[in-house]
Design brief:
By secondary structure, the chain is of the alpha/beta class. It has a single domain (about 5-160), classed as Beta Polymerase, domain 2. The chain is built from 3 helices and 7 strands. It has a 5-stranded mixed beta sheet with strand order 1-2-5-4-3. The protein has a two-stranded parallel sheet with strand order 6-7. A hairpin with a 2-residue loop joins strand 1 and strand 2. The longest helix has 12 residues, at about 5-15. The chain is globular, with a radius of gyration of 19 Å.
Length: about 160
């Protein structure tokens, strides 16, 4: 298994114009259309042997208009020892993406955690509810929408730290 084979097979199945390939920190990554994440993950699972979900998480890019929320998925082909990072982006106004729980049972809690902290709605998830934060919380704490510190605190004055 090589990165060229993966790019060729996935590109032939889903069209190279919709995919953006890159290599970052020694790992092949593919940015995909959000509405095709389940189809591409299924293809990778069935045809190319990526049958282990290593990680699934979110990221918030508030300045990336229309694609503010990213879903980062790490897959591993254990037979060929090959790793792949898949990225998909959705708007914060409609943060919907297909759930991968049908392929990977381990995606259950990872998707719940990503929903809990970023507000990404995994369509088709069997039990999408908060997992770490209280149910009454009406915001998503990992989004970059809030100041990190209270600017009125005197004990955090920059003068006290030589700035």
């Amino acid at each position: 298994m090589t990165k060229e084979i993966i790019q060729e097979r996935v590109g032939a199945a889903f069209g190279n114009e919709a995919l953006l390939w890159n290599e970052s920190f020694g790992m092949l990554e593919c940015t995909i259309p959000a509405d095709q994440n389940l189809a591409i993950a299924t293809f990778l699972f069935q045809e190319l042997g990526f049958q282990f979900l290593t990680d699934l998480t979110g990221v918030h890019y508030p300045d990336n208009t229309g694609k503010e929320l990213g879903i980062i998925t790490h897959l591993h082909n254990l037979k060929d020892n090959f790793r792949l990072r898949m990225k998909a982006f959705v708007p914060v106004a409609t943060p919907d993406i297909h759930s991968l729980t049908g392929l990977f049972s381990g995606a259950d809690w990872m998707e719940r955690e990503t929903f809990d902290f970023y507000g990404i709605n995994f369509v088709g998830h069997p039990n999408l509810k908060r997992i770490l934060n209280v149910d009454e919380m009406d915001y998503f704490p990992m989004r970059k929408e809030y100041q990190m510190e209270d600017p009125t605190r005197m004990d955090k004055d920059d003068e006290m730290f030589g700035r």
